[in-house]
Amino acid sequence: MVKPTRIRSGAEVLDDHLRESQTGSIEDDLARNYAEDVVILTGRGVYRGHDGLRELAKRLGEELPNAAFKYHTRLFEGELGFLEWAARAEDAEVEDGADSYLIRGGRIVAQTIHYTVKSLRK
């Protein structure tokens, strides 16, 4: 008899996502943590699926190359997760990062992302 696979909690999914964001690959993050039909809402528009996340990750990497991230607040209530974060790169920083997550069946199925990039150039 095959034992059923345990579905990860929202906290486990988010922890894995944040670990992959810092030290892993986007492809591993997508495969393990995101539903293929994920929907992401940002101030720049709506992005869909893994290709939408790849586009957003590329944009963040261009805006904050080699940035160091700090995660301030992590909250969970049922299927909902919330993260406040900051980041600093050589020439830019973010102080107001805020993401929300809808996690079902061990995968992120929806996410909102907000941040403001401030230039550090004089």
Describe the structure in your own words.
With 122 residues, the chain is α+β, with helices and mostly antiparallel strands. The chain has one domain (10-117): Nuclear Transport Factor 2, Chain: A (Roll). 30% of the residues lie in helices and 46% in strands. It is built from three helices and seven strands; from the N terminus they run H-H-E-E-H-E-E-E-E-E. The chain has helices spanning 10-23, 26-33, 49-63, and strands spanning 34-42, 45-48, 68-77, 80-88, 92-104, 107-114, 117-119. Strands 1, 2, 3, 4, 5, 6 and 7 form a seven-stranded mixed beta sheet that branches. Strand 4 and strand 5 (92-104) form a beta hairpin. The mean pLDDT is 93.
Regions with little confidence, pLDDT below 50 for 5+ residues: none
**Which CATH class?**
Alpha Beta
Question: What class, by secondary structure content?
Answer: alpha+beta
CATH fold topology: Nuclear Transport Factor 2, Chain: A
Q: Which second-level CATH architecture applies? A: Roll
What share of residues are in beta strands? over 45%
Describe the main β-sheet briefly: 7 strands, mixed
Helical residue percent band: 25-40%
List the total number of helices. Answer: 3
Order of helices and strands: HHEEHEEEEE
Mean pLDDT equals: 93
Domains, number: 1
Specify the overall morphology: globular
Radius of gyration: 15 Å
Beta strand count = 7
